[in-house]
Structures are given as structure tokens and as C-alpha cells.
């Protein structure tokens, strides 16, 4: 079975019921979020052996994170920290036109001090692929340096490096992001990038296909996947360009959609799926994610297959 | 007041919250389901005196079933079983494209051993109408035989027999179903059948009106009602053919829609409603059911009337 | 900061979960409702200093009302009553075609005996504006008289009087309402009236603009705002007529929409907003209200601004 | 099977979670309470055919009451009222030293206008026993008169009359109560009275046994049961005096304990149980009630038997 | 009405259900805690006009704090901070021998940078009394200095200064605490100190009465109150020594007991209650607090009076 | 790190809220139970690497079981079954004298057909210890035979065999149990037996110490632990006899206490703890379990240490 390792920050997600503001809610629903863990869970549930690497505070909140991932089959390799805290985000989900509102409280997280020396390296150098995102280098200078080193270790050991740009304007500005990413992308084999990020951060002002071709050339990528939100996604592997539209959903919770896409894509691609199949698994997993509360794509392979079937049956009875 | 008796299996329905899979849910919502009980509750609430006949395990779970039906006014006539169990089904409701998922756990249910001798017969032979469905004979050979005997008793005593085909591919194949139903239909006065079942099980490949006419001729029916899901329903009483489209709904829970239709239809028809009125009450009850969680159509006559009114008012204040 | 005082009845709102009828629900969600308090909370949260004046039973339920309003920043000036009760309404929210159902239980409420002598007058005569609705004079003869006296006190002290017709057919018939309102309107400076009420109660059968002009002339108003539900609203200040359409919403709870509109409108208008801005704030607050459970518009100014922005961002991260 | 009919008021009980005051609770738990209905449910569940007679508002809240009783097997015979309301009480359960707090809101209830002519009389004159309490005549002059007439009807038709004094200082003073009860007790066969009420209302200042003997003599009773709260109960049937101590409990909800005692006692006594057995069933049912939230004694005969067993087993597995 | 102002940190309290660890809980209950706010709420509800002064992040979480206090009648005077965060603590309540477990996450809180210049001073210099605790100077050097300045301002303006030692070993060691408190106590008029803190921090090794006398002499106090947990409390005003034992409780939530004691004591003492009365109100409020979930003493004066009554009645009905 | 493997049945546990009977509950709380899984989770959380071996239906309910165990760090080695079902038990927790009531629904479970050939053997033959209980051979003849074979495999490969008698009268009678256990015990190294089971099943009528000595001699045990419920436990290793009393608890949920004892004992004993230490860890883990809802002992080593400390601190702050 192919193996995938991801490295990054996870946060406690504390959400109000959909119709209730933070000022008046009596309860908060507890979930665990974080792009890399989201990808790991989606991929594991869809058939890839995954390991999540990180640094966490040695508190019941930190254990909550590993407990959650383990319950979905993901292995965890964690450097436990006596001092730091677990990043948190508060979510007020809301229907339109109120929309969802997020209050971040992620300063001082343990992972911000993670160095390559203290992190478990085995799951990275032994995996078939390593997944990191642009969120991690944005969190601290230490993490920017650590991210570069881990990508480098992976490459040196034959592990395919997968990078999702995932620009976050709350964490850094486009100029700093561009500089840092410029240093990381030469270590990358497979790139996921939103068309919007390609424009704002990488400075590409073309259409999606041209962006995919250009970034592949510029960084000598094995594969580039350009996503456009509801307009679908496009993959280019140096030869073919394949496009895939999204699947209509009754959305319950949109957070984690992009990560579900990556997890579904990789689950197919790492088992030698074609670009077509991988894109389909990506959009199907993303669509299923949107029907589930929480950041995690708690889907089963049979559900992906049902979504992609020509004529999905109603309730089976 | 006209009287209706139904006979069949009820199950405990254990449902996750809509956004949560069975693997992670902390709670299950408890309801009682089962086609014949669903029909009984709908009809009773809409003005018919109904009795539900069955065999149940003599446990708090079995009592739960009668307690639920009684709370809605239905009388219960039950053979209590010391040994068997209560069939159960687990429901994961989900929005599209995930859809709802059902895990059946109905093996070994007490009713599967029910014989005509042990069941209370009075409520059947004294009623104006007896309602059974094709689910019951599918559950065991004993029940196939019992169903036939009860239909026969009813007929012999002047009770109108109502049969809803309700084919369930989880319980038997179309061939076995066709054979068994072939033996039962000659005892039937009023038939409800989905167009899909008419095709798959009865082997009729015509349109709905032709199906209604043909089945009426073939089995000398008093009335045939052919349903087509969202495409509405059609009734034929040997003279007139009446069609009725469905009513648009914001669906909360689709399970039990068909039974609500039958219950609403019978509530009107058994009080000498016309075919037009009966179909309207059927589709209105079905539409209302879809706005309520659980298998039961917890509707009031005033709500049916409001739905069927030309210009329903907003909140009355 | 401008000051607004409102006077009227508040009720305990006890609501079932959306999919559950009153006959079977195990829990009721507790909220506080009442048109004038709804307006006060919306205006206070959007930047106006507001005070709510009323008479309440001296019980934990009565204190619940002031506690709720105070938590949103509203000051409360209450005559405590040893004997009466708190009006209550039971709500069964439902999706279509079931719709929401309200069971009123508001007889014998303490406020029905409120006289001008016992009520706190300072917050009325010192405010910039006094808000009352047509619900209050409908509740009792005493209150009809009290309402007239309070409007008169306000006017005599330079407080702008704001009146929302809010006809309730459950409380009185159109003839009685027309007579009573005919006595009150000469004391009114700013009138809010639904087009439907203008027709049924005031007997105007023109279009909205003509109604606004006619009622302004007839009662020498400073400002008339005519609302038309989903068709938007229109304001006329003796010079200009300004129209505003509503904002599409995914509605969670429609109760209180009209009050949110008034609260949002007044928040802008009392801070010297133009008619255009005031109408925009009205419809934006109303739209936001519909995404929140409960009668109260628990919105923040930043949310109103987001709704009115040309290109509102997605989740900010 | 012996038959018992009870007549009286039922109320909606709306309770906060145990640790939360009414001013801040977000939810209320819904139950149905009322002494006579409590007795009916306890007796029915323990094997007596019972009917509850009353007058209720024709609203979903009124239906809630009959739905609840019917779910426990009790038959209901109700005069539906278009105009009145359902009495309500709010409960703040609390541990010591806070204690539980009740806010009554029972004015204007439909039953207060119930006359003998409009009530269903069959279930009263045909029963083996009729149960009423001193709460009912306290609610209105009409009900005082109605209670007397119903007791008289019962007696005239050979139905044993059972009366529980149940003095409520919130409803009337001891002097009025004494006068009214003085008129009713001559119609009574079986009397339940708390020692405290015997002292405060009936003016007996002796010990429990003397009270039982004196009241039996004075009103020519068939049976007198004197209860003393945690000190147990005592029965006198003109011959023997039998005493019974209470059973220790971990109390979850004390409301309804006395009614559970009466229901358990009558369940045994009406099936020809001895005084000893009847008292034991009374105290066991009362003890079990205290472990269940809500006014109703949702117990099973097997649980009563387990409580009264010499050496009750632990969990049976 | 006497006025009390308190100054200090408030935290978001996120608690699991009592039987569930943080690693597995699906929900957290939201409350607001913090010693000085707890005292303010208790005193306000018991009849003192109180104001709470602090610095909070300008987020919905910060607004939650003022919303909570305002709902209980407390005025809030807050410096809003654009940058910091709200301190949080996670609570796992547990019965014995597991006990309750707290995970603090209070680093980086906005209040840690609060200077006298930016805080609202009016509510401090105009109050009858100012309440601060030893937690505040422990949070940062800035706050140690600010605390001293506020005590000094208060004294200079005739406001009685009330100080509760409240030593927290998580925040500082006893040596640092002793030094800092040594600088603050000369500004204090009324001192609350746990006997344990008097020993560990102040270095007094006598019994409670001797401690009260010695600390009064040493710092020229107007009043010293020494608390001993379940062993009760003792007050010394330079003349009399009064002792008071605690009141037995069925404890639901012990957090905030000490603050409830101070709030109840001050509510009596600031209205010229005797030492005896003030101590009684302190222990009664503390006992009532323990029956309520959350840090706040949501009690009513009538409940304090009931607890202190000779023969408290059962449920009043 | 020492390794422990357990083999046995797990069940879905569906529990009502403590105060609500199965007939009326609206929700059920979902947990996973089963003696061997309970032991595995306790031991894993306290520091032993554990693996749970079983056969489960290939449904979301079956996955729920592995997901739960994995979330607590336990590895799972499962034979997935396409056909069977997951055993279930319904729990009505109740305080005294009602007590808790269990309704078993465990017939037809997948594990009942588990043969040695289809089960994963590696985790058994490679572990330091194998844990099985007397429940497993009671479930079916196949399992009795499988249990014997697995014990034999373990012994042959140097794995210490641990057996907990755990007699269940619902599953078999004492005579059959005695015969079957007589065939298994010669394969056992470490025996846990309740004194009551030693008497009823093994026929030993001595005191606990004599039982421990006799059973050790008779079956050539390495270690015998005799438990006596609240009276504590006793261990005999062929040399010393050590006794340990239980720790007082405020019990929330007693189910799983015995398994927590075994898990805690083994966690210490397998890391070379003395008999004294192992018994202490057993009783401490058992006491902590009783404060947590669910069958699992969700404890942390620090909590065990706190319980065993001389002077456990209050909340650490």
C-alpha cells in the first residue's frame, strides 16, 4: 500500500451552532482542523497508509489531536512540547448573507518552534510522498526553514514532494509569501495551487492552463494541479492537460473542501490512478466533505464511487 | 368513524445527526419506523380509528413501539414474544451528493415467527379495512403464509383488503417476490404500487395508467393507485382515472413519504372521499411528512387543509 | 450618541426544534420576543443608545426579559408587577409546505394593566426618539390609552415619535384597529406600515408610493416607510421617495424580520443617515436577522457593512 | 382487570437543567404533570386499566397531555375547550441548600370551568374506583361543585371514591379548604392524607394512628392512609393498623412522589392486595419515582418487585 | 445604593460534560470566569451597584465577557484591545477520586498590558469600594504596577480598597508573591485571605484569629477576613472577632466558591451589615454557588434568605 | 515497551440518559463496550502497547469499534465479516433503588463464528501476554474451541496467558461453564476470578486467600488474583499473598470497573511492578473508571498517580 506523510499545524476548532453568535452560544462543538491533517485523514480513509508529523503541546488538548487522527487510521509521529499551546480557531457558521465568521487564536502554538532535529524523520524519508502546505512556512521563520529542510530530506531519499500553496493573508503578505515560496518550490515535485493564489502570490496572470504549464516549466514539476473553486480543477503532468468540473452539493460545512480535494486526488494518484481518475476522486471527496460538519472528510471509498457513478441509487433498501 | 387495521413489522430507527457519520457520532436519535405502523399513525391522526397488529419482543424496546403508536391515538393489539428481538435500522441522513445511508439490523425479529393462530384476529375481521404491505411476506416463509391467511380472514368477514407492494431488494429478489405476490394479490381489493415495482416485480412495462388498468383487470381490484415518486400518483377505480402531482417541499426527512401518502389517501377514502380528494390528501400528507424528522407523519388535519388551500396564509398572528 | 426608547410587551418564546411538533418535543428553546424589544436590541447593537420601557411580572421569567436585553447593551426601565404573568408564545418552526405554527398564550400579561403614572417617564421624555407599535394598543383598553399618553408626553418634550402599525388579526379586528389608530396617528412623526396593513386597516388601496404620500399628508408625518415583504421597502420624507429591494437570504428564522428592518433603519437614520443609507441598513439588518434563530437581530455593524459591500469576501483567513 | 378513573387538572411542566436558573437557561425540558394523571399513569403501568377525565384546551399543548398519558396506556376522556389555556409550571431543580423552585403559571386553565354536564360521565360511573384530590376543588368554585357532583355520581353507581387531601397553600387558605373538604369527605370511601395536612387543614393534632382512626370514624371511611413523608405511611381499614417505612433513594426528582405512592398503593389494593402489600407497593413505587425525571412514575412491575425483594441482584448479566 | 467596582482578568471557561475527558468530548460548555467579575456579579445580584473594569480583545469573545456581566446587571467599563487575546481555561469536571482538572491557556491576554492611563478611572475613584485580587499583579509586571496605582487612586479619592490575596502557584512563586504583595498591602483597607495563603505567602504560622489580628495590625487594616475552606471564615474589624461555619451543600461546581463568599459578604457589609450578617451572607452565597454550574453565583436575595432561615420550607406550592 | 494482546467480543452500547427509561428516551448515547477491549484500552493508556484481536461485521458499526480503540492508541487486528452483525446492549442507568437495567441484543454476532484459522495470529504469538475472558467461550461452541486454540498457540510461543473468569449467567449455566473452563484453565498462567464466580462456577467454598492458593495449585498458575467487589482484591504468586482494599468513589458509571482493574493491574505488572503496586494500580484505575461514562477507563497515568498519592491536591491552579 502506498504511503503518504504530511507535516503541519493542527488546530482545535470550536464552532457555535449555525444559528447562534459567539456572544450568546452556550456550547461549542469540538473538532480538529489543519490542512495537512485533513489531507492525511482523507487519504487514509480512501486507502493510503498515512502518517501525520507535527509538534504538539503535551496536554489533553494536544492528545485530542492525535486521538482524532488515529481514530481514522492515520499514524501520528509527534514531538511533544512541555511549554507551548495548541492553536485554536473559533467558527461561527452562518447562512447567506451572514456567511461564516472565523476568529483565529493561533499565536504561540508549539509547532512554531519545531526544528528538523527534533521532529521524527523516518516517516518522511521512508514515505512514497510528503505533503506540506504554504501555511506552515507562514507561521514562523523557524518553520519556514524547517519546511525547506524536510522537503530537501524527502527529495534526497526519493520521496515525492507535494506542496499546496494555500496562501493565508492573515499570516503573511503576498510579498513575503512570494519570497519564501520562491525558495521552497525548487524542492517540489507536485504542486497544488489555487488560480487566485497563483495570481496574487506567484504573480501569474494567465488562465489556469497557462498557469499550470508555466509553473511546471519554471520549477520543473512532475505535476501541477490548478484549482478554481466552484469552477473546477485542472491537472498538467508535462504531457496532458485534464480538466474536471465540480459536483453540485447541498453544503453543510465548506471548511476543508480544498484539503479533501487534495486527499482524494492523492488517494487515487498514489495508487497509479490516471489524471482523470485522480481529479474525479478529488472533486468527489471535496463534494462529500461539504455534507459533513468539521474539517475532516469522513468519507468512505464506496461513497466516492457512488458519487462518481452514472446513476447513483437512492437509499438502498 | 371508519376503522382501519394494519399488520406488519416495526423497527427501532436509530439515526445520527445529519452531518455526522456512524463511526463518530456520540448520540443516536430514537424513532419507531415500519410501513404499516406509519400508515396507521397517519390515518389515525387524520381521523380514522386505527389498530396496529403485530408480534413484538417483551422488552422495553418492544414496549417502546406500542407506546409510540398509542401516543398518537393508534390502538395496538400485540402478541408478546419472550424470545425474539426487535428489528433495528441505523440511519445516516446526509445531504447531496452524500445521500442518506441505511444499515439494516433486522434479522431474528419476533414477528418473523408470527402465525395466524397467535395473532389477535378481532381487530382484523371487525375493521372496515386491513392494510398490509409486501414487506411482511418478504420477511419469512411463515409471514408469507400468515399474510395470506389474514387477507383471507379479512375478506371473508367483509373487511376491505389494502395492499402496498413496497418491494425491498434487500429482503428478496424480484422472482421470489413475483411468485409470492402472485399468490396474495387475488385476495386484495385495493392495491398501491410504485410504477418501478410494477415493472421490476409484476413485469408490467406500460405507463402508469395502463398499469393501473391492467392490474385492476388482472386481479379484479376495487381500486389501484400507481405512484411515481416525484412525478405524482394516479388512481383508477374501474371507472375514472385521476392523476395528482406532488407538492414541492423543503425535505427534512424523506423516509416514510410513501406510507404517509397511503395513510393520507386512506383517511380521505375511508370517509367516502372522492378519488380526487383522496389523492390530494395523500400527496399533502406525504409533503408534510417530509418536513418532519422520523418515519411518522405527525400531521394534523388542519395542516393538510392548509397545504391544499388555494392561498395558504403565513404564520397566523 | 443618539438615544432611542421603545415601549411595549415582551413575550417568552418557547420553540420546538424545527422538525418536531409540540405534541412530541422533549425540549423547548427559550428566547425573548416582542416587537419593541426587538427594535431596541437591533438599534443598540448597531450603535444607538436604547432603553426599553415596560411592565413585567416580578418573577424569574420577568427578569429573564431584562437580563436578555441588558446582555445586548439595552438599558431597561421596568415597572415590576407582583401579580400578572409573562405572555408566552409557542413556536413550531417548519419548512415548506408545513410552515411555522404559533400558539399564543399571552392573556393576563402584566403589561396589559400598565398606566402612564406607574411607568418610568424619564427615558421617554429625554430620548431623541420613542418607538411604539400597533400591537400595544391592541392588547387592552388601558394600553390603548397609555400608548396615546406616552406619545403625547414624548411629543411635548421634543422626542420624535416612531410608530409601526404592525396589525395583528389575532388581537383585534380591522375596524377596532382603524378607530384606535386613528386616534394615535396624529401624535406620530415617523410611520412604518406594511402595504398590506395600509390596505386592510387604514383603507388605502393605492400602490406603495401613493400610500406613503397620502399617509404623510393626512397625518402630517415627518417620514413614512412602507414595507412590502419580499418586494422591498420605500421611504418618503415629504420630498424624496426612495426605494430599496430586499437582500436574498437562506432563511433560518423569519420571525422578527420586520423589527430588524426598523431597528437597522433607525440606527442609520438617527445618526443622520440619508434615506438611502437608512433603507439599506434596514434591509441588511433584516436579511441578517433571518440567518439567526430567535426574534433578536444579533448582528454587528461590520456584518451590515459586509452585506452592503460590493464584493463581500469569503471567510477571512 | 380492575378499573380506575381519575379526574383533575394536568399542567405543562417546563424545567431548566438542574444547575441552571430560569434567567439564563437556553432550553426547557417538557413534561406533563398533575396529581390525578400521575396516579393514573402509575396505576396503569402497574396493571390497572385507568382512564383520565378532564377538560383541556384544543391546542397542540392540550393534545400533548393526552398523547403523554396514552403513551403509557392510560385512556383519556376529555372535554376539549376552544377558549382556555393549559396551566403551566416552571421548575428550577436544584440541589441543597438551593433546593428546587417552582413558578406557577396556572391561571385561566380550561378545567376551571368544567361542569359535570360537559364531562364524560361513563368512565366515572362504570369504574371500580374514582380518584380525585383536594387540588381540584381549590382551583375554582365551579370545580368545587363539580368535584362534589362527580363523587356523588360515583357513589350512587357503586364506584369506590378515593380522595387525596393534597392541600396546596398557593391555591387556598386552610380555612376555605377545611370548609370545602368538609362538604366533600362524606362522599369519600378511601382517604389519603398527609399528617401535616390532617393537622393544618382538618385540625387533628394527634399522631398518625389516632388521626387514621379518627378520620375513619368521623367520615365513615372504608380505608384511611396517613402519610408522613420520609417517616413512612400507615393504613387503617377499620380493623387493622399497618405501618410501612419508606425505602432509601438517591433522589433525582422528588416531584410526584406522593402520587406515585397512591398509584402504587391502588394498583395493589384494587387487585385485592392486603394492606401490607398495598403499602409496600406504594412506598416502592414512590422510591422508584424519585429516580426518574418528570412527574410520572415510569416504573414497571418487575422493578417494584425487585425493590421489594429481599436480596435484589445487581445488573443482570 | 452603595457602589462597588472591581478590576481584573476574565477568562473564557470551556468545560467538558462532567463524565467526559477533553480527549473525547464533542462539546464544550461556555461560561465566563475570573475572580473579580465573579465578585461583581454576586454583589450586583444581591443589591449593590457594581462596575467591572478591564481590558479585553475587541473580538466576539471579548464582547461575550461584557455581554455576560451586563446580563446580570453589572456595568462594564472596558479598554478594547485590537491585538491581544482572551485568556481561556479548559475544565474537566470530575467526581472523586478523579477530581476536576484544569488546563490553563491564558498567555498573551490583552489585560496583561493594561496601564492606568488607558483604563477608565471614573468608576474606580467614584465607587464606595474597589475590589482587586492577588491574581492580577501575578499576571505581568505591568499589571503589578497598574494594580498598585489603581489602589492608590482609589484611596486618594476616599474609595475603600478591598483586596483578596488569592495566591495562584501556577502564576508565580511564593517569594515573588510575598514581595509584590508587600508593596500592595499598605494601600489596602479590607483584606480577604485564605489561612493557607497567609501561611505560604505572608509567612504567618498562627491560627486564624491570630492571623487576622496580626495582619490588621501590620497593615493598619479596617477589616480582615480569614477563610479556611470547609472550616468556615472569621472576620476581625479591630474590635470584635466573629466566626462563621460553612453551610453543607450538594456540590455541583466548586469553582468560584471563594468569590461568591466575597461577593455575598460585601453585599451585606457595604449596606452596613454587621460582621455577623456579612459572614452569614458570604457563606450562604458560597453555598448556593456550589449548586450552580459556572463560575458565577447566579443567586437571588430570596435564596440567600431562605438558606439563612431557621426552617426553610420545601418547594412552595 | 511490553506488549499485550486481547481477544474477544465488543458490543455497541446504547444508553439512555440516567433519568429516562427506554420507552420514552429520545436519544441514546453511543459507546463501545466489551471486556477484552476495555482491558486493552486501559492498559494502552497506562503505558502498554496493546492489540485487540476480533471478528467484526464490515459495516460502519463494526468500523466504529476499531475507530474507538484506535483513538485510544490500541492497535486492532480484525477479521472483517460480510454477513454477521455487531452485538448490542441497551443500558438504562438508574440510581438506587431503581438500579441500572441492561437489555442484551447480542445474538448473531460475527465473532461467534470466528475460527483460529481466519484470525490474525501474529499479535497473539508475538505478544508478552494474551488476555481472554470467560465471556468468549460462552458465546458459541466455535468460540470455546477457538479460545482454547489461541491460548495454546500463545503458550507454545512463550506468551503469558491471562484469563478472567467473568461468569455471565445470561450466556450459560454454571455447569456448562465449569466444564468448559475446566478444559481451558490448564492453558492459563495468570487467573483473575471474582470470589463469587470461584464459588458458583469453580465450586470453591473457601475464603479469598484459600481460593487463590487452591486455584494456583490446581492449575499450576503463575499468579491468581481474587476480586471481591467493594471488599477489594487479593493476589497470590505462589509465594506472597497481598491484599488491597478499594478506593471510595462517587460512582457515575460502574460498568467496566472489573476490566479497568485488570487493565490497571496488568499495566503495572507487565512493567515488572510488584504485586503491591499492581494491585494499587488496579484499584486506582477501577476507581477512576467509575467517574467516567462508558465502559472504557479513559484515565491518564498522572491520574492514577494522583489517586495513589498520600495527599492529593485540589484543582491545580
From TrEMBL, chains A, B, C, D, E, F:
The keyword Kinase applies. Transmembrane segments: none annotated. Keywords: Kinase, Transferase. CDD domains: KdgK. SUPFAM superfamilies: Ribokinase-like. InterPro entries: Carb_kinase_PfkB-like, PfkB_dom, Ribokinase-like. Residues 3-294 form the Carbohydrate kinase PfkB domain. The keyword Transferase applies. GO terms for molecular function: kinase activity. Belongs to the carbohydrate kinase PfkB family. This is PfkB family carbohydrate kinase. It comes from Haloarchaeobius amylolyticus.
